[in-house]
Amino acid sequence: MLQVSESQVRLGLSAPDKTEAIRIAGRAMVDSGLIDPGYIDSMLGREAVSGTYLGSGIAIPHGLPEARDLVRRTGVVVVQFPQGVDWGGGEPARLVVGIAAKSDEHIAVLQRLTGVLGDPAEAARLGNTSDPRAIMAVLNGEAPAAPASEPVAAPIDGDSIAVTAPSPHGLHARPATALVEVAKRFRAEIAVRHGGTTANAKSLISLLRLGASGGQPLTVTASGEDAAAALRAIRAAFEAGLDEPVAAATPTEEPAPRAAPADLDYDGRVIAGISASPGVSTGPVWKFQREELTVAETAPDPAAQHRRLDQALAAAAADLRNLHEEFWKKAGAAKAAIFKAHQELLDDPEMVAEAHALIGQGKSAGWAWRAVYEERAGTLAQLADPLLAGRAADLSDVGRRVLRLLAVVTETMAALPEHPVILLAEDLEPSDTAKLDPAKVLGLCTAGGGATSHTAIIARSLDIPAVVAAGPSVLDLENGRTAILDGDGGVLVADPSERDRGRAAEARIKVGERREAERLDRYKPAITTDGRRVEVAANISDPAEAVQAVEAGGEGVGLMRTEFLFLQRDLPPDEEEQFAAYQTMVRAMNGLPIILRTLDIGGDKNVPYLRMPAEGNPFLGVRGIRLCFEREDLFRTQLRAMLRASVEGPVRIMYPMIAAPAELERAKAITEAVRQELNVPPVELGIMIEVPSAVMMADRLAREVSFFSIGTNDLTQYVLAMDRLHPVLAPQADGLHPAVLRMVERTVDAARRAGIWVGACGGVAGDPAGAVLLSGLGVAELSVAIPAVPSVKARLRAIAMADAERTARDALDCADAGEVRALVRQRFADAGGVS
Questions:
Q1: At what angle do helices 391-406 and 302-331 cross, to 10 degrees?
Q2: Is 131 left (phi over 0), alpha (psi -120 to 50) or beta?
Q3: Which residues are catalytic?
Q4: Contact residues for 333 (Cβ-Cβ < 8 A; gap 6+)
Q5: Which helix (H) or strand (E) holds 207?
Q6: Of 413, 462, 573, 767, which has the highest C-beta tally within 10 A?
Q7: Residues whose CB falls within 8 Å of the CB of residue 220, separated by 6 or more in sequence, listed in order
Q8: pLDDT digits over 232-265, tens only?
Q9: DSSP H/E element including 29
């Protein structure tokens, strides 16, 4: 058995910060012959990924798994800092236990260390003792350590059964969750004993902290009126495998990673996602940090804090139930089980009880909850089994989900380094754009999102490479780690080889040459090789962008988002302010047409002066034209400004979110009344096609307008019933899904029969494959982000419309968006990077 010697205990040291404390512990490990010096950097790297502070003044720094070859032999050293070292969690660390692990020999030491955590007085004694033997006695098992509050449960008297931890991974999250679900069906007290440690069978964390590996014997004891029935059910559950997959070669609880495209050939670690913006970049990665959660330590009204905690737990549990149900439909019960495990983590009786106990001592709900989940996550992280230790991240995720409902959320962003970086994020909101300096961002890679997510839109508007839906593992990369972002292939390559870097450099050169050629030809019309023309316009959001749109080669503005005038202010803009803005844009277009969309704001936007009530689903509530009708005063003021500006040049007015002919009739009537008041000439009127009902009624609607503009982003989420920002479903919310393409086909057909034209102004229009397919379906105008105008025009000039039409027809018969993209990639492999 591993023993701690006196030479491995260093007392009375001091350190100015955590980094130096880890280096001191690392040097002690080198001196003890446990590690090579290079392992110290890995210990610092681990700290950057996840904190190693356990609580009660104890931290356990250790290296990353990939550095295990730098471990000479398994062992620990203990370094005492009596004055304490700030470990970033609000409490000073006084005992720093450096761990070098080649095997599981150190687990007995850590189990005894876990016992110390349960007795703050004992931890304080060891943190200030001048006798190294006191520390040795506890860690070597020569002196009893106080039992930890978990997983040790009070032994109970009753009937017992002997069972075996399921193979191959033991009592990890999924089987432990199954056991908790069975145990909670009974009123009896139920305990599980592994070796000399007992756990509460109704507490998932308690069971996980047993650390029971596959095949190890367990004893289950039950006491109470239904104890016999409980034991029978538990035995049956163990015999059935506790929900473990049968004959699975590599069981996993996480969604399977997306496979990298077969034609990509990288030596480094490939993390596959979805291409959101083309281009290739190489550089260090850096994690985007948006929110900071702040909680007060104390609160004056314990009863109110108890209620707040219960409400937050209930809301988070409802969210997780929805995630479980949706992921179960998508990927099956086994892969959805992780969300069920997350539900059990929230419903853990001992964790919830301890949080309420802290509230009873005067702590706030947020502070109490954070203290409890962070302590347990830290303890789980030090378990030997990597699968069990990995549940620390799950507990942190669940804990933070609740904490967001209890804390003050501050929108912040850690300053980017001076050198350019590839930005990693969960996802990005439109408001994040203002926080990004394009000169410092080589590319974007997000764990979530989809092809129509905000990240994709932002990336195209900044003209930088982007990959979305890469999965949560991308956020495990440490800041500064070198990677290649391949926006064309939809992958991030960590730790690229020299060969990888060389190929990326060649790709960047080719992209640069192609973009320079596109820039020089940007004013040429987009006429296909067989003589068909498609107009390419720009999407803009403020007056300055009107000039940029023309300079980029835009043949007009296909979408002017007027919302910019209404957001981030205390009062709505008056008629004169709006008129000045619209007039500036119309004049900048110098005779080219501009489409002004009327106000498109819903309950998802924070606009205080509108006094819009919170809605359960703002995308199905009062937004777009519905809001214009609710606030007809604002609608009329905006129409007056637009119509006055129309005297300066060709203005078209477009209504958003039209779902029925009656809405269009009312909008037109109000517009006509305003026009007659002003006595200005009529303008062309059009509508956004964003909802399925508008597609189904397109033949009727087409008789009343001069044009349609398909908003592919909203149309996609309404047709597929998938929120494009949903953490699970967003990757599937792809506008090239055949169901969406069929909606486009139906819309174009109705427009043709009525003699009007159809444009598209959503993200799909600027997508390489989307531009081809929309054109092939008969869309006459593509309105895209300003930087994409030259490339979309060049792409269309490189293809034949007959080929685009044939491919679009075949795409309608595909099964999903992936098959559609593969079809386009195969047909147009040489046409300007269509993918």
A1: 130
A2: beta
A3: 62, 172, 454, 761
A4: none
A5: helix 204-208
A6: 767
A7: 160, 161, 162, 163, 190, 191, 192, 193, 201, 231, 234, 235
A8: 999 988 888 876 654 333 333 333 344 444 446 7
A9: helix 18-31
